Hints:
The structure holds 3 protein chains of 3 kinds. Chain A has helices at 2-16, 49-57, 91-96, 111-119, 132-145, 149-171, 196-203, 221-227, 240-251, 257-260, 279-290; strands at 24-28, 34-38, 44-46, 64-67, 101-105, 124-127, 178-182, 188-189, 207-208, 218-219, 231-236, 264-268. Chain A is α/β, with parallel strands linked by helices. Chain A folds into 2 domains: 15-155, 3-Layer(aba) Sandwich (Rossmann fold), CATH 3.40.50; 173-295, Rossmann fold, CATH 3.40.50.1980. Chain A has a 4-stranded parallel β-sheet. Chain A has a 4-stranded parallel β-sheet with strand order 9-7-11-12, sandwiched between helices. Chain A is elongated. Chain B is mainly alpha-helical. Chain B has one domain (15-333): ABC transporter involved in vitamin B12 uptake, BtuC (Orthogonal Bundle), CATH 1.10.3470. Chain B is 76% helix and 0% strand. Chain B is globular. Chain C starts with a strand and ends in an 8-residue tail after the last strand. Chain C is an alpha/beta fold. Chain C is built from 9 helices and 12 strands. Chain C has a single domain (5-262), classed as P-loop containing nucleotide triphosphate hydrolases (Rossmann fold, 3-Layer(aba) Sandwich), CATH 3.40.50. Chain C has helices at residues 43-51, 73-79, 95-101, 115-127, 143-156, 173-190, 201-207, 225-228, 231-238; strands at residues 5-14, 17-27, 32-36, 58-63, 66-67, 80-83, 161-165, 193-197, 210-215, 218-223, 242-246, 253-257.
Amino acid sequence: MRYLLILLLIIQGTIVSLPAWAQNVHVTDLLGRRMAIPKDPVRVVSLAPNITEIVYALGQSHRLVGATTYSDYPAEADMLPKVGSYVHLDLERIVFLAPDLCLAIKDGNPIAAISRLESIGIPVYAVDPRDLESVMDTLSRIGRLLQADKQAKQLVQGMRRRIQAVESLVAKTDHRPGLFFQIGISPIVSVGTNTFIHELIVQAGARNLAEGDIPYPRFSKEQVLGMSPDVIIVTSMARKAVFEKIRQDWYQWTNLPAVKNDRIYFKDSGLFDRPSPRLVDALEILVRLIHPEMFKEPS
Amino acid sequence: MSGDHSDIVKRLSTVSGLLLIVLVVVMLVGISIGSSGSGVTSLWHIITDPDHADPMLLTIIWKLRLPRVLLAALVGAALSLGGLVFQALLRNPLAEPYILGISGGSAIGAILGILLGLSQFPGITLTSFAGSLTTLLLIIGISAGQSILQKNALLLSGVMVNAFCSAVIMFLVSMTHDARLHNIIFWLMGDLSMGSLQHTGILAMALIPCFVIIFWFSNTMNLMLMGKEMALSMGVNIKRATVILLVTTSLMVSACVSQCGLIGLVGLVIPHLFRLMLGSDHRILFPACVLGGGAYMVACDLLARAIPQHGEMPAGVITALIGAPLFIYLLKRSGR
Amino acid sequence: MKHAITLENIQYSYGRALVLRDITFSVTPGDFFIVIGPNGSGKTTLMKLIAGIAQPDTGMLEILDRPIHSYSRKILARQIAFVPQSVPIDFPFSVKEVVLMGRSPYQGVLGLETKEDIKKMQQAITFTSMTHLADRKMNQLSGGECQRAFIARAICQEPSVLLLDEPTASLDLSHQIRIMDLMEKLKAEKQITIVMVSHDVNLAAMYGNRLLLLDKGRIAEIGPPREVLTYQNLERSYGCTLLVDKNPLGDVPRVTLVPGKFVPK
């Protein structure tokens, strides 16, 4: 008899975590899955740092009850309860937060974890922000899900304007300096064609010297010297002291155009390591570094 | 009739009974501790006062912790038994369940499955299983020139095949740059967290017949440890026993690995541990490894979940961190 | 029962090497039958054939007047017990456990021992004077003690025939005698036929009632010690100078090695 009661309670428990019938909408996510989610989700868990950023950008952070670790932008997001990492979700913590909607990354979060969440009755909507275009698409989608269509539209329009501005600026010149974008210090790793950084580089009016099939190719120092880069941009999570050492390192090679013209730059990787709305900021920073001549005040 | 066998039956029951209690206690602790908090007391409340149980906690326990703990117990039992059988078959104290190419083959199978974007179940489980079967057949083929009873041939081919597979694995890992790299690494480290009750049930159905067969041959293993000549002269059909045990144990270990990845050191340490404590009689070592190995795995998984502040360690790290020093300590204690 | 063991025209080859050929002899129940001969003459192989561990290429082999292949392995084990030359000790069992294993031809597959089995184990341990060592692990025993434990196990099999492959090799003198005396005791008290390989021709002479001199896979001579142990037979088979005289302890030959410096030119 006790056992039957426990069983009933479990059934009741799983039903409780499902959204109430009457206020559901049916949607299809980017994995092609149809699901029923609440029209007005109030307990949302973000399963990736860039999704957290997007929700904050849409002004819907009040709906968030949890996020993965490294959801550190904006700073307030760090206060949210943590549900494990993007590649190793803590299912127990997620279930404990009793979410009515989880937002996941297609081909990012492990599909097994997503299936488990769904088998417990928690809807998971997958989006796919990979680059500027898809980030904007994600903004629209999540905006629709979280009753923030207007904010999404504004954000997207704003982003398009800024991108357009950069593009027209770049169109004014034929000069395409050779850029080596270094994301790994040891070993030296750059970005290939199938990355969002490559797209930014091209839009910012430079040639990506590491373009090719391998998304994150490794290079020896010698190979980089052979490329003769005009500009070198290094991003990493390392501290300033490490940057100085790397600068000294590159400056030995005085034939490099990048060294001769003093065009080695260091940027904090936060802006460049995730496909979020701040990619536009990254784009603007890049174009300033690559084409400083377009920004000189006429004297 | 059982009065006639009272001595050995008594020993079996005592060992089984004690270890069963240990296993149940550890499992209860396992389902009452998790990353969302809650403690043993709340579990007590659920059992004594089900009407007022928190449905959230019930969901967590039923859907997340219980399958995991059951899976850990099952895998711990199977891997410990695997080590026991291979140590007896190969008459080598360094033998462990992955030694006959199972780790190499299943890893390559799993990695290929991950790279192809297959789902964990049934996709990757099947490719991984197929991989370990392939290497097993390869090893049997290589060492078939010598008689299958030539233990060194099996052992050496197993070690070589595993080494070759390691190279292939490193190559595959170096070629992977995207999110699938994470999946591969987690698989290689062993992962008990992704099993559902249903998957665990299927695994149990595959493993339990294997357990029965191995127990059936437990006395035979005792006799086989006396050497080929003496075992034959005492009436043991060595060839049949070896083949059956080899195939059964390989299938058993492969099934576990394809579900949970490569959890190391359990199969090596647990048989030795219980051998030091209980002697070499495999009829007694069988329940010791099944129940004790299961309890050990549940405990290690528990620590892997409970210790880190954020996230969890792979269970295989704990089994090694605890297992090795524990074994060294017991070795010194036994005065050898 | 006429013969304990009968071999007729037995031939055995290993790979392309012919190890044994034209082996024809029989062992009478109650014999203390000792096989001697130089290394590589095929003595161990002969033991393995009789124990049913190896199969002859051709020829007839009967145990207790029945062809050996008509026995199932288990039933054969109730008639013949085999003590091999060396036994691996990777995972040490206690003496009791090893001796108890001798009961397995009478048990089911799980080998659950009955009180009867335990009694017989204790009797075998007492018979071989191992009582004070009963609980020790095998790897804590000396060579001689190990050998006695394996013989105790063989006794537990309650066989009609006991086969031993060089049981006294690498044992010190006192243990050698103890083992051989144990064999005599088994023969006398339990009527077990003893068939043994020995490298020590003098021990063979003093204990065996029939000897078989094996040379290059063939029977060189078979019969009572005084017929087999002549200096012609021995010098031909062993290929060295030997002195054969009468053993002062009894009516058996005594073989003495002759160092080169004593050989008359």
